[in-house]
Design brief:
Layout (H helix, E strand, L loop, with lengths): L30 H9 L13 H14 L7 E5 L2 H12 L5 E5 L4 H13 L3 E5 L4 H7 L4 E7 L11 H10 L3 E5 L17 E5 L13 E5 L1 H14 L5 H11 L2 H19 L5 E5 L9 H7 L8 E6 L2 H11 L15 E4 L10 H7 L6 E4 L5 H13 L3
Parallel strand pairs: 2-3, 2-4, 4-5, 5-6
Antiparallel strand pairs: 1-7, 6-7, 8-9, 9-11, 10-11
Helix pairs in contact: 2-8, 3-4, 3-7, 9-13
Length: 390
Amino acid sequence: MSVPGRYGGGPEQSALVPPVLHASTYIVDTAQELADLLDGTRAGYSYARIDNPTADAFAAGVAALEDPVLQSAVAQAFASGMAAISTTLLALLEPGDHVVAPASCYGGTYQLLRGTLARFGIETTFADQTDSAAVAAAVTDRTRIVWAESFANPTMLMADLRELAAVARSAGALLAVDSTFASPAIQRPLEWGADLVLHSATKYLGGHSDATGGVVVGQPALLRRIRAARVELGPVLAPDEAYLLHRGLATLDVRVARQCESAATLAAALDGHPALERVDHPSLPKHPSHEVALRQCDPGRYGAVLTLSPLGGRAAGMAFCDALQTIPQATSLGGTHTTASHAASSSHRQFDDAALEAAGLLPAGVRLSVGLEDPALLLADLTRALDTLA
């Protein structure tokens, strides 16, 4: 018995949520249609490595959130946040080009810039992103990208994006912002002059710790170059992952609002605890980026991550994590469950002590990604664990 080679399109009614389309290939009516699809001169689908409707629906949803007023931005989806970052940099840089990146950047980005891209002749200068003059001083005539992070991981330091955009423009460079820690529920970098916004969608966009993906948002001319590199390199977002990530967009605003509120509550309650050397959260007036957060973040939303640095160095930070009873230790962040991780041995394991100091991260620092639980219960576990260190 033969297997049919064509399948119908399903019901005529529109679905409330995008369907999951697993097809790896699509039927065309003419050879010219296939040629046009592969050239990108015709809208439609030919092969799943090139485009997938479910992934496109997710990307379009993120673009709409990042550019709600003009609605002129477009997006490309990727298999992970690092796939989005690496493909974007490879699409826009050539040997001999120069990048200015924050000294406090995510460990994976740090390693990509100083390792893989350096081997291909792309140079990076790491500068304090909170000091626009220092960023400007690091720019050269070969600078093509100024890289920033919405909140530094995990110190929550913030750059003044409007100032960095001016620095980039004066150098003829692009401003690219990794906004994973903020999401468009807190801050939309395109409104502050950024050319590109990137996310590890695994975190807040998906929000449930059950899907991995990445996304890049910007104007069509730039995204065409990034799409071309994505097609060549192949880091395609799978349909099932795209469906789960798209689902997360519907609850993004309410989740992040609650998470930010709880994080600020915990930061205020723990600030000054005798076992802690430092509490990092922009809601605290003494945080170095407090004033920038007041300007750039939506009111009352200053991030859902805080860093707790116990007295006693690296060993104390790891002991604090091990003393937690109800808060699990886990990598990643942005989900509905609160998690803890010792930054210097996980997200920033690529950093030596000098790099940690330049990033403003204490070796004891424990990153707390605040979820949706009752903050009183979280505070009880954190306080009890800190008391064991005394």
